[in-house]
Prior knowledge:
It contains 6 helices and 7 strands. It is α+β, with helices and mostly antiparallel strands. Strands 1, 2, 3, 4, 5, 6 and 7 form a 7-stranded mixed sheet that branches. Helix 4 (43-55) runs parallel beside helix 5. The longest helix is centred in the middle third of the chain and has 30 residues, at 136-165. It is elongated, with a radius of gyration of 31 Å.
Amino acid sequence: MKALLLVPLLLLPAPWLQAAEPHAAQAERPPARASADPFERDPLLRAMQDEVRRARQLVGFGVAPFFVELGVDDSESVTLAAFFGAALAPQHSHFRVQRPAARVGSPAFDNTGYLGSESFSGTRFDSDFIPLDNDLLSLRSAFWLGIDRAYKTAVEALGKKQAAFNYYATQDRLPDFEAAPKLSLVRDLHTLPFDEALWSQRVRALSAVFRERPGVLSADSEMTWGSGAVYYYNSEATVLRFPDRLAILRLRATAALEKGGEVYHGVQFTALDPAGLPGD
Length: 280
């Protein structure tokens, strides 16, 4: 009797086996590919796009901007220096500067090209510097304040420009703005290798050579490596992002002349990569 009861139980479907099948199928799916959209992968570009689009809706003074642009300079650099072979303290810097601008009026006559176009008499709450962290909310807040000030500056300048032109008769005047084709140039911002310890040793060695030279009063060497990026976005959907790199090596020396006086001489080398500078 017990054996007969076990047969129907074995024929029943096992719910835990059925529930495991969808999970097993899901595990076999290939992983999702990363988005190729630069606005999805770069929070800085995304924040610029969001705020420029939002700025087109500004109508606080009864006039909306017909063109808005926003640029950002992301600069990171290190400077190594030495004097007569003695190393000076290295200097590191990293900052981001925003450059917002707005045009109000019309393409034929807007707020630009006037003596007071960049003058704003109101209270300024924004900063030229924006956060270094790629936090979307913080970046959008900084851009919002910058574009808001640029918009108020443009409205004020348009009124001053219109008042000034009321006193002068102009003929055959060119339009203030001409639309340009949309441009999209987004480059990879990969980091180039830079051996700070190696270059610190080279900089010291280059200035130490002059210690044994008679008549040399001073000798210093300096190496600066800047590795940054330039960002740009406007209301016509033009987007730019490209690296901004430059390596500079400077050598300077002052020597005393036999008949009195001093002579100064210096050389400078530049390259887009530290590997392109002269070696030892």
